[in-house]
Amino acid sequence: MEISGISILSLVTIIVACLLVIALMVVNALVMVYVERKGSGFIQRRPGPYEVGPWGTIQAACDAMKLLAKELFVPANVDFFLYFLAPVLAFLPVLALFIPIPFGPFLTTLKVPDGVVLILAFAGFGLLANLLAGYASNNKYGILGAGRAVSQGVAYEIPMILALLAVVFQTGSMNLSEIVEAQGSAPWRWNFLCQPIAFFIYLVTLVAETNRAPFDLPEGESELTAGFHTEYSGMGFALFFLAEYANMLLVSFVCATFFLGGYKGPILDGFWWTFIKAYAVMWFIVWIRWTFPRVRFDQLLNINWKWLLPLSILNLWITAVVIKIV
Amino acid sequence: MRGRRDSKMISAIWDNLKGLYSLLVGMWVTGRYFFQPTKTVHYPRQTVDPEDLAAYRGPLELTRGKDDESKTRCISCQMCAKGCPGNCITIVKGKEGKSPSTWLYDYTLCCLCGACVEVCPTAAIDFSHRLYLVSVTREELVLDLLADLQKRVAAGPLKPKALPEAAADKPAAAPRAQDAGGPEPAAGKGEG
Questions:
Q1: How far is CA B48 from CA A254, B58, B78, B112, B164, in A?
Q2: How far apart are CA A36 and CA A94, in angstroms?
């Protein structure tokens, strides 16, 4: 049975997968808040949360409860519709983004032929949400944060696409499952070894695309209080927060898929390898957040336009030439 | 001209490579810190090691006399009271000699600037290492430093390493680490 070209079965699959992804997002946010706070604590030689529950494990759940119970405070003169649309718009596209990710050989929602395009297209929605949030909330910090978010996001999207494109050139497919299949089980047959420059560029741009330190200028606390989500409280803020961690998770999964062999591992291929690799990348993001200071905005754009963009074009060109020769 | 521009480009690339290396060094440092034991203490359950308090500048206290350890060195000259920006020191001169009969120190007004310690001609006041000074009323924080000195004297003579009791340090309590690191040379102890 089909409805306008989509079979009922795949429709059910998508709905179930979306529910699972929502569960994954929430659990991931709770776990990552704990990991982040403990990690920052240990890196700064202090214990991190340790009062609530054994070793502070319930701390993140308590924070989530606090956010749920908080009053939704709407400042005066906001653009009401856009103000409430923005957090939803930040959160919802992430569901679509997880559709083409191959978690395991069978654990894939849809083997979308142009999965890369789908991911890159829907990732732009997060940017739009940040822009609307800052624009609608009638706040100078909000509008400054939104401006920064857009110029940073648009700038870093280009080298990111070019870096992923190098892998696509090499594999000859935009299907994420086929990209994983093209890589071998052994670690030395993963893409990060034959595409080291693309891997490096992707690692830099994924931090910038998720607005995380050292590229967290859209919400730079020292200058902009909280940037684009300054005026959001309660669940509005929680949705932005959830979307940030979901985006982190997404770029980590994409990194694992493109460069780290996806669900393939030295022993026993399966979805556990995807999760191990993705969470290793997540830990890398947390690690550099607590290591490097925030860059200045001109430095941020200089890194992108003067270094990453030429480097990624050069890398793409070399890849194309090598493919043509070999 | 051409060559100079080339060398400028090469040095820019080289600088950025060095910058990348420095990022790796930073990650190596924080990565090592992650596995090292924590430096902070779980305050209500643990307290700071007294040896780590040697440089801590807490509320004022009177130092012990040079000749007679039980007496203060204060000569009631009022230099500290006049120099204090918060007017937290009240000294009343005693009937005999120069020594004070009252020495009140309002800790609620004190900003710990150290003007009094610096200006004192006889080095009669110094910062204590009292870390856990806590009170629920303002009155309790007006410290009678003469009584405090007498209590410390009663608790015993200066020891080279007097161990302060860590928690529950009420105003004017028993011996403190200050007695070890005070201006007194350890040899100059009297009968106490």
A1: 47, 14, 35, 21, 11
A2: 21
Give the residues across from A108 on adjacent strands: A102
Residues 274-293 of A with CB under 8 A from B: 287-288, 290-292
Question: How far is Cα B104 from Cα B110, in angstroms, rounded to an integer?
Answer: 12
CATH topology of domain B50-188: Alpha-Beta Plaits (3.30.70)
ipTM: 0.76
Interface contact A43, partner B, CB < 8 A: yes
Cβ–Cβ pairs < 8 A, chains A and B? 36
- pTM flag (> 0.80): no
Report yes or no: B40 at the A interface, CB cutoff 8 Å.
yes
Contact yes or no for A261/A187 (Cβ under 8 A): yes
B170: closest CA of chain A, how far (Å)? 27
Beta-bridge partners for B143: B105
What distance in Å separates the CA atoms of residue B39 and residue A43, rounded to the nearest whole number?
11
pLDDT, averaged in runs of 10, over chain A (326 residues): 69 84 88 90 87 83 84 80 85 83 80 83 83 84 86 89 90 85 81 87 89 79 75 81 88 90 81 88 91 86 89 91 86
Per-residue pLDDT tens for B26-55? 999 998 998 988 888 888 788 888 787 888
The string of DSSP codes covering A61-92 is HHHHHHHHHS-----TT--HHHHHHHHHHHHT
For residue B27, the chain A residue with the least C-alpha distance is A291
